[in-house]
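During the reporting period the student researcher (J.K.) took over the structure-prediction task from the postdoctoral fellow and processed the backlog of single-chain submissions. One of the processed entries is reproduced below for the supervisory committee.
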Amino acid sequence: MLTPVAHDVVAECLQRQTGDGAPGDDADRPEASLRESVRRRLASCDDQERIACALHRLGGVDQTLTAEAMQISPQQVHRLCVPLSLGPDVSYAELTDTTPTNTAPADPTPADPTPADPTPADPTPGRAGTVRRKRPRKSLMPVIITVTLLAVVSIALLARCNGERPAFDDVDSDPGTVISADAAPIPSAGCGNPSLPTDGDTDSAEFAEPSPKPMIVSLPGFGQTADELAGIIGWPLLAEEALVIGIDPAPDESEFNTLGDPNRRDDRSEVVRMTEDAIAGECVDLARVHLVGYGPGGQLAGGIACTNAALYATVTMVSGWMMPDTCELDPPISALFVANFADPVISINGGYGPEAQSVFVDQALRRADSEPLGDVASRWAEAIDTETLPEVPYLGTDLSRDQGAGAVAESWSASTGAEVTVVINPSSSHDWYPDNFGTILEFMVAHARN
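J.K. obtained the following C-alpha cells:
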C-alpha cells in the first residue's frame, strides 16, 4: 500500500526545477549537483528502498515508526536507506526548491509528519529500537499505523520534498556514526522475559526486565576446548558484564572444519545456529555481539563473518585468519587481526610454519590455506570501504625490527565507523600473548554497531 506513495514522493523529488519553480533544467543552481546525485540514487532504488527513503530520509519519519509501517526491523530500514546516505555534513536544506511544484491543501496549519496517533510512542530510555505503546488491540496495530501513515505522511512527504529538509545530523541513524562505543543498546528477543524481583515479593513489586548484555562467541584453537581457551584468555572475569558462549569442534575432532569439508560437521552453520539460539533465549545486546577465534577458530570466525555480517558487530582473528573469495560484509563488520611476529605455526607471511605439524592432532584433516595476513587485512579493508587501504608488503618490511620494541598496531577506518586493526605482538611462539585480552576488549567496546 505504501508503494504508490513512495513513487509519488520520488517522482516529485526527481523533477528538475527552474528558477520560477516549474519543472525544468536546474543545472545553473548551486545545489544542482547534489540534487542530481539524489535523483540518480533514487532512480536506481527498488520499491522497498524508495518506501524507506521516502518515509525516513525525505520525510523525516522516525526509523522505528517506519519499520513498524513496513513490518521490518529498524536495522533493515537503515540498510534500505543507504542509497540516500550522503554524509554527515550534508543537509537536505541544500536541495530546497525555490517554489513547491506540488499543490498543497489550502490549510494554514503546516503538515505534521508525526502520525496523528492518540497514544503517541513513549520511547523507553536506554532501550534502542523499542517503543512502548498503549494500544486497544494488538492485532489492529499494523492497520492503524498503515492507514495513519497513508493519510498523513503522503501529504507531509510531498510537501517536504520541496520544502525544508531535515539535516542529516538530525536523522537518528546517521550512517557516519553507525559504529561507535556510544551505540545505544538493542535488546534481543530474550530480553522480553521478565525476571522475579530480588525480594521475591511478586505482589508488591513489579517484575524487573533484564538488562541486555554484550555477547562474545569464542572459538578455540588447535587441540583445545572452549573451556580451556576461556581459562587462557580470561573470559570468566567478564561473567558479570557479558555473556560468553564457547563452542567446541565436533565431537571426536580436534579442530574446526575451516575448509567446509562436506564429510564433516558444517561448523559455520553450527556456530551461527548457537549464536542465534543464545540471542533468542538470553537477554543480549544486539549492538554488541562479538566473534572471537584462535588459530583454526580465527579462520572459522573470518569465514562466518563473511556470510553473517549482520549478526556480529566485530570479528577478532587471533593467530589464524581467513577471508573467503565470496565475502559479503554488508553491513560492514569491524575486524581485529592479532598475530605473533614470528609465529612458527601460522605465519604472518602466509602458510603453515615449521612447528605446525606438532599442533595438528589429526594429521589427515584437510585444512584451509593460510594466506598472508597483509592480503587478508587489505581485502577486508577494501570490502568495508576504509578511507585508505593497508599496503600489503608492510607486514614483511615495517615489522622487520627489534621485537623488544613491543606490539605494533595499525588501523584503517571507514566513514561508517567500521575499522580494520592489525596488531603484531613481539613473540616467536604460537602461544596466546598476555596482552591480547586487553587488546580485544578495547576493540570490542569501541566498535558496537547500531
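The committee noted the following: The longest helix spans residues 141-162.
J.K. will present the remaining backlog at the next meeting.
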